[in-house]
Amino acid sequence: MEARSSLDSILRLIASLSGDLKGDFVPFLPQIVKSLVVLLNNGGGQKDAEIIEQIFTSWYNIMYNLMFCLGRGIEGILRDTLELRYYPSDIINGNMSESMSPVLQCARPSQLEKGIKMILSEVAEQPERAARAGLLHYDMTMRLQNFFTRGVI
């Protein structure tokens, strides 16, 4: 990977832009996800823990900055992140699930239910995805349970 020294700065800039633009930034998420997948595929993520950390620190910050926008329509962010969520690496899947936490924290129970149904339908279409979907599905299910046990609806 050539421009290693500037990667962290570029990723931080993108995360900062998401905070400044909020809802206006959301239409750019599919292209950002594609760029992150390309970065991971081109040697950036399979073996280099530092690059993985930079990518997912930035991605977490983007999700944190946009959590209220994305929490209202969880199906959109799940659709946009499909390729990254099912990336063939357990490390990437774990980081991806963790970085989605801010969005899931803001999502209403009805949105969580839609998200769970969407993930289950993705796995039904392609059963080999089941292991990769497990962490995110578990996180969503636990958050939904917490809503009902605390009486927050």
Task: Explain what the structure shows.
With 153 residues, this protein is mostly helical. 79% of the residues lie in helices and 0% in strands. It is built from 10 helices and no strands. The chain has helices at residues 4-21, 29-44, 49-65, 67-71, 74-80, 82-85, 90-99, 101-106, 109-125, 130-150. The protein is globular and about 45 Å long. The model has no long low-confidence stretch (mean pLDDT 84).
Features:
globular
List the helices and strands and how they pair.
Elements lengths: L3 H18 L7 H16 L4 H17 L1 H5 L2 H7 L1 H4 L4 H10 L1 H6 L2 H17 L4 H21 L3
Helix pairs in contact: 1-3, 3-7, 7-10, 9-10
Mean pLDDT: 84
**Span from first to last CA?**
48 Å
Report the major sheet.
Answer: none
Order of helices and strands: HHHHHHHHHH
Radius of gyration: 15 Å
Concise overview:
This protein is mainly alpha-helical. Helices cover 79% and strands 0% of the residues. The N and C termini lie far apart (48 Å).
